[in-house]
Input
Amino acid sequence: MISVVRMLSTLLDHDGRRRLLRVVATFVATGVLQGLAFAALVPLLVALFTQDWNGVTAWAGALLGLLVAHHVLLTLADLAGYDLACDLLDRTLARLGEHVARLPLGWYDADRTGMVGRMASKGAADISSIPGHLLRPMTAAVVSPVTVVAALLVLEWRLGVALLAGVVLVFAATRLLSVIIGRSEAGYDTAMANGSARVVEFALNQQALRVFGRTVHGNELVEDAFAAQRAASRRMLVTGFGGRGLQLLAVQALLTVVVALSVHLVLGGSLDTATAVGLLVLSVRFVESMVDLGELSSALRIAQGSLRRVLDLLEIAPLPEPAVPATARDGAVEMTDVSFSYDGSTPVLDGVSFTAPARSLTAIVGPSGSGKSTLLRLAARFHDVTSGSVRVGGVDLRDLGTEALMADVSIVFQDVYLFEGTLRDNVLLAAPDADPARLAEAARLARVDDIVARLPHGWETRVGEAGSTLSGGERQRVAICRALLKDASVVLLDEATAALDAENEAAVQEALTALAADRTVIVIAHRLQTVTAADQILVLDGGRIAERGSHADLLAAEGRYRDFWQQRTSAAGWQLVGEPAG
Ligand code: ADP
Output
């Protein structure tokens, strides 16, 4: 519990931490008052049995006073707890929001996007439930028995010692079980997260899976993840039930020992019946607290897990930003001796150097896995390079700052995301204030005007989720139109690999040429026409630039590019619209 309070305090600012301490102190005080009220029962019962009416009046008065004080403090404590819970919810969401906006773009993938969503909903609610619902009853469940034991040590030390031993035993059992149950819960969480990720992946990749004949039953990854989920949930149920059972057993054993000891002492004449009855009443109340503790600690563990995950996320370092951002001279992109690795050990790019002069078209080609996408991502500072430097307009990206970079760079990747809304909304995303003439011009250049003409409601047609009413080539034309509207001097483009029909092929090519007219375009080229039109071609192989030059130079060099070209021109799905293979 102390560790939870410590974790919560790292989420709060100075004021919040002081409030948390005050709230916890109120919770402790409530527990002490409750414990004292329980303990006052013993002398009250003794006075009743011995017909000591002065004693009865005094102890009944004390008990009443304690109960009233406890009730008042309990109300105040609950209010303070709720208040803090609301603030904590706001603060968690605000900190998460601020932080994820500063995380490197490269950090995001399908799993992580889902994870952030879960944290902002269930996670934040779990965290606020700690001061809101859990901490007060849990503090009472610990503090009040401890107070009773302390009071008993004063009033009737032998029973105090017996209860103390019992309490230590039950606390230890609870602790041990919470470790065991916690482990199986963690396993369950991992299995659940893994299962959800596989299902999302399965849904997103339906087309590819069906093309390759893999239906629901054929997808081993999803089935394995589900099997692991079932096994983990069974394990959690078994350890959970077993654990709770053992804990209840320990609590009942404590009760039995107290009863047996009381009877023994009464029979031996060293304890009077009145005290024994008082003690038994007390022990029953005691047991209730212990049972509460078992139930609450499971809820607290779940909340603690959410808290841990949020704190871990907040600890991920955002990309460093310059104190004073420098200004890029033009749109030239320059990589100098760039090396990069995702995991810190396997290099994905190794000593890559090239310059893409302003207003030029650079095509990147190379086998799958050679590092093409990584190179493009580094140019957009999805990650920082491991060594070397990436410059735009003569300024290192780390000195340019993310805001300036994002204003200066357009990214057109393969999975063009079109949000639910009209075609116009989607195109204007990049420049909401663009006037109609500019919009029409960009649409003409990207050949989006053809799409507008085809669609039933023209610009006002709603493009479905992820743009499903448009073909792959059309979606990319919309993205290029966005890039044309955006006043950015660099465009990073990953050409659609999907085979395009002749009309789309020509349209995309025109759009690309329009882009390159006054922007620096770096494109992962999948189409021969783009390669032949490029000012320079970089051939990547195993994270290094194997060859570079113009199409004609590279064909003449009879190296890797020439092999690549020949392979591609003969491969199905590649339409030869450029000059014939040499
Ligand atoms: P290409 O675009 O040429 O196919 P990539 O740049 O996508 O190549 O990938 C280069 C290498 O980096 C591959 O071995 C790939 O597995 C690895 N890689 C790509 N993205 C990641 C990532 N997010 N985390 C770890 N490794 C990655």
Summary: The longest strand covers residues 333-340. Residues 53-102 form the longest helix (50 residues). Residues 342, 348, 366, 368-374 surround adenosine-5'-diphosphate (CB under 6 Å). Residues 421 and 462 are 5 Å apart (CA to CA).
